Amino acid sequence: MAEPPTIEGPGFINLRLKLDFINQELTKMLTDDRLGIPLVSQPQRVIVDFSSPNIAKEMHVGHLRSTILGDCIAKILEFQGHHVLRLNHVGDWGTQFGMLITHLQDNFPEALTRSEALALGDLVNFYRAAKQRFDQDEEFKERSRLAVVDLQSGEPRARQAWQLLCEQSRREFAKIYEILGVKLEERGESFYNPFLADVVTDLEKIGLLQEDEGAKCVFLEGYLNKEGETLPLIVQKSDGGYNYATTDLAALRYRINVDRADRIIYVTDSGQADHFAQVFQVARRAGWLTDAVSVVHVPFGLVLGEDGKNLRPDRGIPLPSRSY
Ligand code: ARG
């Protein structure tokens, strides 16, 4: 299939494929319905976790990249005959909803009763204004905190307001998926709320949990801070709130135990590489994740603006920490 090898400079041997051979192989592919790609003999259940924008915020370029890369990965696996579950792990829970709902109640209550009252662009502006008030106004902060409590306890009005905010964002996201022709199943962070407490109690039972300044955490192997001390992965904050890592641990367990996934692929920017490595480590040490399941983070580079900073519409506004 190759021309005689040639030596090009020190240490290099060039092999050139014969044109005839290339021709023949390409023709074979072209005339085959499956383009020469066989179906796998043992299809796996694969979850591709991708896109995953956040409610009440605009989808930024990182989510767009994840959407396109994740869709390509899913398509390849589907074509090979795997059973693929395409999951949109949207950020649909957290303290930000308390301040957003409170701010909208004060300024634009229609948004909390009619789903078509608000465009996502407005929602993002409201979000910014709400954040500003949250940082400056103690009384507003306290009311926002109470709104989070209402939401968590399932108080119907808070719940409805939250649902409407999600719907408004969902509508905007759907337009983008429509243009791109991407199909995804939404299973946001809130889906895992009922399982968060179990993550913490189970870690405790196994003996992996330690308390650090009131927060419940697992001390990580191989992660040290500047002082050379072991870094903790916090799974429950001192105020009782859960976080992004707790949700991912619950999601991982659910995907293994209920979805029965053989392989789980996460597509996000490389900024989250440590997060995933840490979550995987804890799940492995807890025995939830075994060698029977493969988990992979597929990282891509951050898209930077001309100023060299991470390009995202919400830049400049420090996001409230994710707590539940
Ligand atoms: N919503 C997250 C973000 O915008 C991405 C979620 C990725 N998936 C996951 N299971 N953590 O950064």
Q: Can you describe what's shown?
A:
The protein has 324 residues and is of the alpha/beta class. It has a single domain, classed as Rossmann fold. The chain contains 9 helices and 10 strands. The strands form 3 sheets. Strands 5-4-3-9-10 form a 5-stranded parallel β-sheet, with helices on both faces. The chain has a 3-stranded antiparallel β-sheet with strand order 6-7-8. Helix 3 crosses helix 4 and helix 8 packs across helix 9. The longest helix has 25 residues. The chain is globular and about 80 Å long. The C terminus is likely disordered. Bound molecules: arginine. The site of arginine has 9 residues, from helix 8 and strand 9.
Summarize this structure briefly.
The protein is α/β, with parallel strands linked by helices. It has nine helices and ten strands.
